[in-house]
């Protein structure tokens, strides 16, 4: 899927956008908490409002940031920066249509040097 033929974002009210992005950030935090409890990987998370920063053992970072004016979710990692729009219930990369959690999993796996899989729900 390319940006030219990707489906249009699903219209969201500001409250819906807030709910959807909050669910994403909460799912990421919940997964990190489980991994810490199970001693899978030591990734520190720091959240300030709509910004969640993940710090990996090699000192690299991933930043997930809400963008309310654009109704987007942004992901910055060592491999690059990505913008996501809400399309039919899924946050999709505006360039290639990849699901947010798949992209986050790939970026986190690269930076942690081990396979890590994030999912939308428990």
What does this structure look like?
- The chain has 122 residues and is of the alpha+beta class.
- The protein has a single domain (14-112), classed as 2-Layer Sandwich (Metal Transport, Frataxin, Chain A), CATH 3.30.920.10.
- The protein has helices at residues 14-37, 100-112; strands at 44-48, 51-55, 61-67, 72-77, 80-87, 90-93.
- Strand 5 (80-87) and strand 6 (90-93) form a beta hairpin.
- The radius of gyration is 14 Å and the shape is globular.
- 25% of the residues are buried.
Quick structural overview:
Helix content is 30%, strand content 29%.
Number of helices: 2
* Percent of sequence in beta strands: 25-35%
Q: Identify the CATH homologous superfamily.
A: Frataxin/CyaY
Per the CATH scheme, the topology name is Metal Transport, Frataxin, Chain A
Q: Compute the gyration radius: what is it? A: 14 Å
Overall number of structural domains: 1
Q: How do the helices and strands follow one another from N- to C-terminus?
A: HEEEEEEH
Q: Report helical residue fraction.
A: 25-40%
Shape: globular
Helix and strand content put the structural class at alpha+beta
Spatial order of the strands forming the largest sheet: 1-2-3-4-5-6
Q: Average pLDDT value?
A: 92
Summary tags:
single chain; alpha+beta; Metal Transport, Frataxin, Chain A; 2 helices; 122 residues; 6 strands
In terms of topology, how is this protein built?
Layout: H1 14-37, E1 44-48, E2 51-55, E3 61-67, E4 72-77, E5 80-87, E6 90-93, H2 100-112
Antiparallel strand pairs: 1-2, 2-3, 3-4, 4-5, 5-6
